[in-house]
Amino acid sequence: MMPVSKGDIQKHLKNITQSLNDCCWFIHRPHPLTLCLFSSLQGSRDPMFLTGVSFPPDWPVYSETLIKLSVYGENNGHQQTVSKEATLSTLMRSDNFLGSSSFSVTDLLKSKDQQLSLSLRTADDSATVGTVVVSRMKMGEIEDGEVDHFTTDMHQKCTLVYESSHGSVNDKDNGPIMNAVFKNAVCKVYRFQTVDSKWMLVREQMAECTLSFSIPKQLIALYIQEDTCRIQELKDLGELSPHWDNLRKDVISRYDQIIKEYQDTLAELEKLTGPLFKPSCSKGQKYLEFIPINLHTQRMRVMCPRKTDSFYDVVTVGAPAAHSQGFKNGGLQKLLSKYESEKKSTAYQCIYYPPEQTAKAREILCVVSQLQPHISALADQLLQTAQQSSSQPLRDVLKSLEEKTEQFVHALKDELVKSALLALHAARPGYVSKCQSSAQSSPARESPVHSDSIPHHKEYDEEEWDRVWVSVAKSLNCVIALVDKLQEQDNNNQESAPSHTLADVITSHKLPVATVVWWDELAVLVQSLKKCVAEVAERARRSVSFVLLQEAACSMAQGLQLQQRRDAVFSQALAALACGFAMRLYAGLEDKGFLRQLHAIGLVAQFESLLSTYSEEIGMLEDMEVGISDLHRVTFRITEAFGNVTCFCPRDHYTVEVPLPHHAFQALPEELREGKLLRVLPVLFNVGINEQQTIAERFGDISLQERINQKNFEILEGYYKSLTDTVPSECLPCFQTQTDIKELLDTLGQNVVTKKRKNVEILWLAGMICRRMNGIRLTSCKSAKDRTSMSVTLEQCSLLRDEHQLNKDYFVRALDCMRREGCRIENVQKNIKCRKYAFNMLQLMAFPKYYRPPEGTYGKVDS
């Protein structure tokens, strides 16, 4: 071989695998082209070599091009890897040389089945030392526009075919819609043998997602906006007694501090450029706490002879958790429980409202902010429609106005609003309850209002609040009555003079003067309705704002700090969910059954977690549980536009808008085009698999994991019942294995209550059920790098075995091949700049069998 420089190696070998057990280095030469194959000899005199080579379009490879294969052994053990700085001369020592063989491109093209079996000859051509099988495959058979390539095999084992960082523009994986959200794809293609000795092609593509940063930045902006509004609402409470006023000032000061911190965080995020994911080594960075860890999408596309291509998607993300805040005192689940206890113990300085009532207060506040402007707009539209020539639009607008007003009344006629109004009345300056006045014979320092000293109804003018409701009802009834009268007059005029319309009745000066003033009457009634609704809304807004003041005041510092933690965890979880929803939607745009299910009942999103219930990972799991549970507050809406996925609404009700281009949007069912809110039901299943889980199972406590799995099984089971009641079975995807979903659910139910160590069957069953129900799959561990990689590759190979007849004899080989050469080792490289899973031998002894990586791919590194 001709000598090459270190610079040449780095220039031409961009996609080199570093493992000497299974790697190929190729050097671009005009003629001939030399390929150097390395295979470890340690422990085997019959090594297996699996690799592939593709030729880019700009390489001058012709039919007469000669290709020489030189095979070298490496005698320093399985664990050694080739660094980027290593030179070929170091590796290709004469004592490592095994043999070589040559062939021309023409030889390969003209051979039977385009496959050559070549004898490896020693350097002096005196002996044969083995064989190498070379086969050619045209990538156009997979996707148009790809280059030709060939594979080299020793003993025809399962093969890694080629590696690419791009796909063709006609590829469904890389179309314009996908490319708007998913970037920097890494692609690997494999060729595996089936049970009937045929070959399947498997394409594995991993990509970053623009939503990793865009969703958190939008959320932070919404948090700032909401907290700014909250400050204004507290100021709008009006004059309060000194005690309540001091508490209000303290709470406003705390909100100001949070707003400043969020503004600084947002400013730092706006400065960032470069990768679209947060690497695992940055998970403790404070200014990145809202960004999900190592968020990537992974799609496996399976292409079998005479069968439709199949797609299997999964989102991989580090467990949504507040790493920058630490887990010394536990995670959100534990902290929230502690917080509620502290609120009760400090209720001497404020009024204690339980969590369900504060949640109700936020819901009422949201309803008020949405419905009041809607009612006002409908009232104005009613006046405009009254001047048109047709009575039907007028009746339609009136019906909408009536419905929205009824929703408004139903939401605000709540006992919480009434009791909050009483409490706010008691907080005004100069208020002294009867129990206080009887106990005080002389002036004294004002005492705070205890939860048991909320004024009774008889101490407050309830009739004033009731009169407001009566005014709303009267105003609406008067509007309805007047419109009925106008329509009756219109009908009479049409019978006597068909040319007269409703607009004539209202506005024409040719008609009797009495009818001319009716439009003015309607305008007065409409304005009265708007005024009454505004008054009710203002009172209700103030009352529930006072409730939220109590929540913040009862445990001010801890409560607002806890909100920051919850905001950060929710941001990470929402970014991952939005990524999964977009990926699932784009994949199902042509699936009418999926789209029907989407708008009829929504989707299930199954989060798989591999965290242990020991040490800090307990806190991570507690954070993750609350963050995923909070996703119940999220809905999705599909819009027509090219643009970014966006989210809006206050903390308790989020809507994420997913844009589609015109042609895709117009092909959707009518319900989706009309902007129906789409529900996603998140469920979480956790099974720890590492050595820390071994300690937890033998000496610690795994009740958190057991509770999570049992609770989420019940949620999943409830979704399945709704699914079977609403969506026909033909809407669900077909699988080769015909096990019924109900049977899978029953088995899962048995497993979540069975006392079994590291029962990973829970994860397998939950993932299988999710896929059969058209769901969104997400897999997590601490950083989505090591344990997640083991889980994703195991799931992919299991799908190949169960759904695509992967030869069972090749299952472990395929698994090792994906872990050694596939997208997941590239993910490790992207995160820590090292192609090593962060495991050591002792740790792996505690892992379930199929979660262990092949030798040479792991070693203890900083993550």
TrEMBL record:
Q: Specify the superkingdom.
A: Eukaryota
Polar residues: which segments have biased composition? 435-444
State any single GO MF term. phosphatidylinositol-3,4-bisphosphate 4-phosphatase activity
Q: Which GO terms describe its cellular component?
A: cytoplasm
Q: Where is the composition biased (Basic and acidic residues)?
A: 447-457
Q: Which InterPro entries match?
A: INPP4
| Span of the signal peptide | none
UniProt-annotated stretches for the region Disordered:
435-457
Keywords of this protein's UniProt record, alphabetized? Hydrolase, Lipid metabolism
Coiled-coil zones = none
Which protein is depicted?
Inositol polyphosphate-4-phosphatase type II B
> Which species?
Cyprinus carpio carpio
